[in-house]
Amino acid sequence: MGILGLFLLLPILMALWVSLTSWDGQGSPFTGDVGFVGLDNYSRLFLQDGLVRRDFMTSLRNNAWYVLLVVPLQTVFALALALLLNQRLRGRGFFRTAFYFPSVTSSVAISLVFLFLFTGSGTVNALLGLVGVDGPTWFADPRGTVHLLGDALGLWDAGSPPSWLAGTTVGGLSLWEWVAGPSVALCAIIALVVWTTTGTFMLMFLAALQDLPHDVTEAALVDGTNRWQRFRHVVLPQLRPTLFLVLTLGLIGTWQVFDQVYVMSQGNPAKTTLTPAFLSYLYSFRQNEWGLGAAMAFVLFVIIIVLTALQRFVMRDRDDVRERRELRAQRRAGRRTQGAAR
């Protein structure tokens, strides 16, 4: 308990204190020379007009799109690979190792490889060229994919957005900016992260699949169920704890994305790959506004806690909750009966 307090709780409290000050990184933040600003750093993030709020809201928007794409994609791919490699296939040991290999490779090294792959004359654009597609300049293209998709479907003109979207502002950004979707540059980072994290989650699903009781699956097979019905009604419910673990780890990891952004884009182009973690680093280490950087980190911490709690509520076992409610109701009824008997 003392170790947890020393290495976990104490640093959190120290960082919380820094977020309430104007510490510039010089000397100790716990002396009387450091100004106490209260909630002013948090006010600059949410309430005060200016570059700080605009940058922070832009980073939240980018990270939200990033989470919305990365978490489902890596979960679905990992589960599909685990189901495939749980079959009796020739060379499945090799394929398990091959798919897991990116997870144990340095993220910096893989980021550099992806930089070469996604350059204007790189392999990805060369492959797109084979099917007649003129690939973009990936890491220099700030266009939002939702804007591009709507333009292609004729819903709007990306160069002349609808006035009600462009004219309505929330948190310093227009609705048109909020719904821009991940930029072309961010899509390349998303592809990288999905590729590197799928192997780790595949192993978790694979371990869970190998631990499932075979008699339940065989009973479903005897009942005449097809492959999809067995997966939907027999296998998937038993994978609920592993699915919750994968989604929780994915959610936490995606909201903390930093190294790929640092190596591949530095938040560019046009700040469309900026994330809260990287923005906190910029304000702390490069602009010496440590109080502001710590405030961003705490907002990020709250976002992760709230979303994890929401996910836990959504994925709760309803049968178990119902049984516990019935048990509590029976105990209360028993106590009332005993009280009446006295």
TrEMBL record:
Keywords: Cell membrane, Membrane, Transmembrane, Transmembrane helix, Transport. One of its GO terms (cellular component) is plasma membrane. It holds the Pfam family BPD_transp_1. It is a multi-pass membrane protein. Its main location: membrane. PROSITE patterns: ABC_TM1. One of its GO terms (biological process) is transmembrane transport. SUPFAM superfamilies: MetI-like (SSF161098). Residues 60-311 form the ABC transmembrane type-1 domain. It comes from the Bacteria. Belongs to the binding-protein-dependent transport system permease family. This is Sugar ABC transporter permease. The lineage of its organism: Bacteria, Bacillati, Actinomycetota, Actinomycetes, Motilibacterales.
